Predict the 3D structure of the following.
Amino acid sequence: MKKKDRIPLLKDHHTHPWLYSSLSSCLDIRFIKDKARALELIGSQDERDELNVVIGWNDSLYNFSPEELNAFSPLVIMNTSLHCFVMNRAAETRLSLQYPAITANLDNREWLERNAAQSMGFIMGTKPCNVDRLSAFYGNMARQGIWYAEEMTLASADEIEIFDSASLAEKTLFWADMATFASLGEDAKARVHGIKLFTDGALGARTAKLSECYLSGEEGVLVYDNEKLLAQLALAAEWNKAIAIHAIGDRAIEQTVNTIARLEKGLPETRIEHCQFISRESAVKAKSLGIALCMQPNFSFESDFYKDRLPEKFLALNNPFRMLVDEAGYIPGKDLLFGSDGMPHGIQHALESALFPPFPGQKLLLSELVAGYCMPDFENGFIDISIDYEKKKVLTDVTLKG
C-alpha cells in the first residue's frame, strides 16, 4: 500500500545549529561501514597545516589504533554521539595549550560527562563558526525540510550576534548551560529561552546511565548525585527560565523525575531531553509533574546500531512512544516534542524512523509525528511525501516559499 500526503516543514526541537555549522566542512564518516574506506577518505582530505576534524564515527563498526591515527597530520575524530572523541599525537600536542583539561582527560569517561559543557565548547572551538557557515547550514537544513531549529548549546553572546547578523534568530530558541548563562550580560540573558543540564552521557560513549551494565561490563555515568542535582535544579529555577535536562538512561531519567518531585517550589517550563529508556513508572510520574519530553524518532534505530553494547532487553525499551502516548497519556505537540539532535537531520530519517522502526513500541502515527515535529502551518513551505508501506520506504519533496 502506498500513501501520499503533504505536511508542513519541520520544527526541530533539539539540535545544535552552531556546533553543526562549525563542523559542516568536516569529513563525515557516519555512513562509512568499512574502516579501510574511512581511513582512505581521511587520508584523501588530510591537510598538513590544518587541524583535521572528522565527524560521524560509529565505534560499533570499528575503532582506530594509535598507529593508524598517527599516520596523519593533526587529527580529531568525533564520535557520532559527540560525547567522546579520539585524536592523534600531533593533534594532542597542538591542542594541549588551548585545551589542557580536554587533552589530559581524553580517556576519562566520567570527567568528560561531568564537564559536558566544556567538551562541547572544545568541539565547537575546533572549527569556529561565522555568518556564512551558519547561513549556509540553515539553507541546507531548509532543503531537508527543516524550517526552525532550537539551539541547545549556546556558545556565548557572540553566537547570538552572529545569528542576528544572519537574520536567523527568529528561527531558533537559545538554550545555555548554567556556566555559560551565568557569564552572559543582562541583554544576552534576556535572549536565552532556557537552561540546559546534563545528568548522564550517551550510548555512543557507553556513558548513558542504565540500570544495568553495558555488555562490555562498563557502567554509565551519573553526572550528579541526588543532592547535587537537587541543588543544581534549585539554582536553575531561580533564573526563572525554562529548563531542559539531558537524561538518556532509565536510571538517569528516574533520578531526574524523582529529584524534580522533591523541589519545594517546583520548576518553570521543564523538558527532559532524549529520555530513550524512560520506564512507564517514570513516565506517569513525569506527566503528573507537568514535565514535557523532547525525543528523537531517529534514535529508534540505535536499537540496531548498538546491539554490540546494550543488554538485549533494552533494545525494545528504547524510544517507547506507544507506551508514552497510549498508557502514560503524553500528547504529541503538547508535552511530547520531537527533534533530531542532528543525528541525522531531515525529514527522510524522521519519517522512516517513526513509521518503520525496529520495534513496534517505537512506532508513531504520521499524525503524531506531524503534531510533535512540524510547523503549525504551510506559510514557509511544505513537504510532499509518498509512503510505501510494503517496502517500508519514504520519498519526500521539499518546497520552500520565498
Observations:
- The longest strand covers residues 381-388.
- The radius of gyration is 20 Å.
